[in-house]
Design a protein that fits this description.
InterPro entries: CheY-like_superfamily (IPR011006), OmpR/PhoB-type_DNA-bd (IPR001867), Sig_transdc_resp-reg_receiver (IPR001789), WalR-like (IPR039420), WH-like_DNA-bd_sf (IPR036388). This protein is α/β, with parallel strands linked by helices. It contains eight helices and eleven strands. The strands form three sheets. A five-stranded parallel β-sheet has the order 2-1-3-4-5, sandwiched between helices. It has a four-stranded antiparallel β-sheet with strand order 6-7-8-9, covered by helices on one side. A two-stranded antiparallel sheet has the order 10-11. Helix 6 crosses helix 8.
Length: 217
């Protein structure tokens, strides 16, 4: 899952991004509304965590623009105001969910994951394929009953492949979904991660390389 965090309180923004990355999400961070508009028009995000009171361009206008573009991106709006009328107004702008500050990080993660599931076709909360059982909420992976410990990027790549339900996923798509914008597209990071993931999943191999196209399970 790829997430954009838009928050002008830099310490909070960076802390949220760090926590989401530990949950195996690819996260970009910006600190004002103008930068947010630039990112959403270039990158494909599953969820935007959007502070409402932003400098340069207000969060309301960012939300409106996302709706105008017709993106599948879901918006989780944040605000320091706990007033019901403010929450209603944010939802009427096109936000998909609303979370007042201060918030519990576990709740933020749960809401981001719930919104992320709405950007794709409905799938069960626990993914199962080829003897692999992946639980995104618990961040657990089992193969034939054996638990497998994965690094965050390995987990993210496996989740993307599992969600594709047997269709081929290109290296570029994996890079888009599992890494943030700082990833160098000319490195072999995807290939190396897939190789490590294959080794950890064990025999027989379940990740198939489709020459010139990508990978599938």
């Amino acid at each position: 899952m790829r997430v954009l965090v838009v928050e002008d309180e830099q310490l909070l923004a960076d802390a949220v991004a760090t926590g989401l990355r530990r949950e195996a999400m690819a996260v970009d961070v910006v600190y004002d509304g103008a930068a947010a508009l630039e990112r959403v028009e270039v990158n494909d995000y599953d969820v935007v965590v959007l502070d409402r009171d932003l400098p340069l361009v207000h969060g309301d206008d960012v939300c409106r623009r996302i709706v105008e573009l017709g993106l599948s991106t879901r918006v989780l709006m944040l605000t320091a105001s706990g007033d019901v009328s403010d929450r209603v107004e944010g939802l009427e702008l096109g936000a998909d969910d609303y979370l007042p500050k201060p918030f519990a990080f576990k709740e933020l993660v749960a809401r981001v994951r719930a919104l992320g599931r709405r950007t794709t076709a409905p799938l069960p909360p626990v993914l199962e394929r080829a003897g692999i059982r992946l639980d995104p909420n618990r961040r657990e992976v089992f193969r034939d009953g054996r638990q497998i410990q994965l690094a965050p990027k390995e987990f993210a790549v496996l989740e993307v492949l599992m969600r594709s339900e047997g269709t081929v996923v290109s290296a570029e798509q994996l890079l888009e979904k599992a890494w943030d914008e700082n990833a160098d597209p000319f490195t072999n990071v995807v290939r190396v991660t897939v190789m490590t993931l294959r080794r950890k999943l064990g025999e027989p191999p379940v990740i198939v390389t489709v020459p010139g196209s990508g990978y599938r399970i």
